[in-house]
Cystathionine beta-lyase (Pseudomonas japonica), 403 residues
Amino acid sequence: MEPLNTWRDDTRLTHGGRDPASHGGTVNTPVYRSSTFIWPSAETLPRYLRQADDPHLREHIYGRNGNPTTAAFEDAVAALEGGFRSLVMPSGLAAIAGTLLALVRGGDHVLVTDNCYGHARQVFDRVMREMGVEVSYFPPLLGADIAALMRPNTRLVYAEAPGSNTFEVQDIPALARAAHAGGALLVMDNTWATPLFFKPFVHGVDVSIQAATKYLVGHSDAMLGVITTTEALYSQVRDRVRLLGYIASADDAYLGLRGLRTLGVRLRQHQRSALAVARWLARRPEVLKVLHPALPDCPGHALFERDFLGASGLFGVVLRPIPEVALHAFLDSLRLFAQGASWGGFESLIRIAHGQRAFPDGLPPGHLLRLHVGLEAVDDLLADLDQAFAQARARHPDTDTQP
Ligand SMILES: *Cc1c(COP(=O)(O)O)cnc(C)c1O
């Protein structure tokens, strides 16, 4: 077989993390449910333990350090991200917390994008601050000017592009240059684009985080996270997250692997459908603003055009101010857009978005909603939104005219 790193992404998605010859010829890497691995003799244990320190060798010793299923998922993701190796984690949030606990100590300073995922913010505000870490938030569009915020003890810059809820796209290469010039690391949450649509290590990222719960698993049926690092950081991060007891089950890693097989076709369809819905919404009288990185209105759109290879299915929309009963009538009468947490599955979702912090000119006053456009027929989704707007209008006739 050709080395994974010379293939194009669609081939990596098809063949990564699979080795039928090692598994009785079966196409898929099986689920290895295992706590205990039997070693062949007394003299092998010390050798196994030594190998556990070598990132190139992986004898499986104990389930908490992984098993052949989790290792296959890690290999497949690392090749897509373009990093050295990946570490499977029990959730996206565990990947965030584990990365920070591996790299940051009391007395360090961290710079965090103001539009980061809400629970990441809580890790910074509660766990990191309690540890004696200095936490400062920076405006997401700051770019190279972040250099002015660097302190002698700045250990890392934490980025997310586009950011949660408000979708500003960050200048990742500029953040990487400034961080590295100040002796700091750049950590990025790459969940929105997935490694298919943004190549973090090409743009200077040191640690890339995926909430694999979203697009990688892709079917809303498992919690999973992945950390991918450069070679320089791998051992440090692996030792710490495994010492903290973070591991994912073989069943969930299997679902991650199975999700990867269709990630390319799913993501291209999410992209196409979400753009169609976003453009349709942008023309609606009820809508003040659509926040989709591929549309010129979105802050950081030029950076999206420069650095990203595509857009996924998640974006924001600001509705004109209407009474809550009309807003709830709109949401509750949708039949295809369900209201729920998470995103990245095959199904469409909508929710009121909270916690938006930074926006260059301020968001227009209205209702910020977050949509995930699933794999349903676009015309059915548009008809669903259309009839829900009619329900809102029935509750409040000025839905599309009030300033
Ligand atoms: C959902 C999400 C996470 C957390 O992932 P979980 O698997 O839910 O813990 C992290 N980052 C972003 C951007 C997310 O949307």
In short: The pocket of pyridoxal-5'-phosphate is lined by residues 91-93, 117, 160, 164, 189, 191, 211, 213-214, 223, 225 (CB under 6 Å). Residues 331 and 388 are 7 Å apart (CA to CA). The longest strand covers residues 154-160. The chain has a mean pLDDT of 93.
